[in-house]
Amino acid sequence: MRDIYRIFWKELVQVFRDRKLVFSTLILPVLLMPIFMFGPSLVLQRLLQGAQERKQEVAVLNLPEEALRALEQAGLSPKAHPDPEGAVREGKYPVGVRYEQGVYRVYGRLAGGLTEGQVAVSKVQGALQALKQGFTQNSFLALP
Amino acid sequence: MIEVANLSKEYGQRRAVQDLTFQVSPGEVYALLGPNGAGKTTTLRILSTLIRPTKGRAKVAGFDVAREPLEVRRRLGLVNGGMRVYDRLTGREVLRFFAGFYGLEGQAFQEALDWVTGLLQMEETLDRRVLEMSTGMRQKVVIARAILHRPPVLLLDEATAGLDVFARRALLNFVKAYRQLGNAIIYSTHVMSEAEEVADRVSFLHQGRLVYEGSKEEALALGEGSLEEAFVRRVKEAA
């Protein structure tokens, strides 16, 4: 046991007297750890924040007035388009919405990682969801 | 002190050492001479229990190297030219580290340290890191490490390799001083002039075989005053 302790002590002294080794094994990881832990999420957060603040154009067809207002309030810019789905497919708009027989259809490009299109889609979905909830609430309140 | 009888070492088909027989007495420097690849290092590795012989036997201080390796190691010091010690420890720390394995701690270590420091005149190395030492100073630490437990048998294998003239001289002086203390020394080298200076008896090794053994004076007479000449003549005769 004493021999093991002796070898341990020798190795410890050897390591702690090697400045490069101490830096690369102890100090460098402490410096790099926060960068790897918080760096990507900070970058992502900034990207999302930028996309949230920007006003994205939305191709719309047959949307009622209240839906258009809801989209504008959500930081979107609705533009009338005869074929929102086609416009999104062609990449002309990041998101499109069609209203038909009481149903909202949302078209968006979701593939390819986190893109501005996804932010725009989530904005549209959020706005329409809020509209739906408001409508449901008003309907309940109007009940005798 | 050292008895080697019919010692052989084979690596597959290759015979590194063949039928080697010699003795070394206390207070004697025995020079093992030969070119690179002659079998000198293999012989010393067998004597220091690092490898086992294929045939024959060898005893160090009365203990068989194959059957009682730990007893042999307690009585043996080994130094070779390429030996390294831990770079970032001081000379004192290196010696304390190795002394511990021989049970030298506390007062016993201090006494051993004082003795070896005086013998090798290495006071300046004790508190300096090995990394900051000259080659000669490092070699002193290597030697001190080997003799700290005062072994009666010392094996030196090309111990002056890479040393400058002063360090080499210091090492040769140390060999003479260690012999004066009654210890048996095997001095293995291919530098004949070193053997001329320190050896009492010499042997010539060629292709794993002992082609000559005798006193230094006899060998010098054989080579008309030159060990190198004696070696060349003996090798030619053996061939």
In short:
The complex is a heterodimer of chains A (144) and B (239). Chain A has 144 residues and is of the alpha/beta class.
Describe this entry's structure for a reader.
Chain B: GO terms for molecular function: ATP binding; ATP hydrolysis activity. Chain B: Keywords: ATP-binding, Nucleotide-binding, Transport. The complex is a heterodimer of chains A (144) and B (239). With 144 residues, chain A is an alpha/beta fold. Chain A has 2 domains: 49 residues, no CATH class; 88 residues, Periplasmic binding protein-like II (D-Maltodextrin-Binding Protein, domain 2, 3-Layer(aba) Sandwich). In chain A, 64% of the residues lie in helices and 16% in strands. Chain A is built from 5 helices and 4 strands, in the order H-H-E-H-E-H-E-E-H. Chain A has a 4-stranded mixed beta sheet. Chain B is α/β, with parallel strands linked by helices. Chain B has 2 domains: 162 residues, Rossmann fold (3-Layer(aba) Sandwich); 68 residues, no CATH class. Chain B is 39% helix and 26% strand. Chain B has 9 helices and 10 strands. In chain B, the strands form 2 sheets. Chain B has a 6-stranded mixed beta sheet with strand order 6-7-8-3-9-10, sandwiched between helices. In chain B, strands 2-1-4-5 form a 4-stranded antiparallel beta sheet. In chain B, strand 4 and strand 5 form a beta hairpin. The longest helix of chain B has 16 residues. The mean pLDDT of chain B is 91. Chains A and B meet through helix 1 of A and helix 3 of B.
What are the main properties of this structure?
heterodimer, A: 144 residues, alpha/beta, D-Maltodextrin-Binding Protein, domain 2, 2 domains, four-stranded mixed beta sheet, 5 helices, elongated, B: 239 residues, Rossmann fold, six-stranded mixed beta sheet, four-stranded antiparallel beta sheet, 9 helices, 10 strands, ABC_transporter_ATP-binding (chain B), ABC_transporter-like_ATP-bd (chain B), ABC transporter ATP-binding protein (chain B), ATP binding (chain B), ATP-binding (chain B)
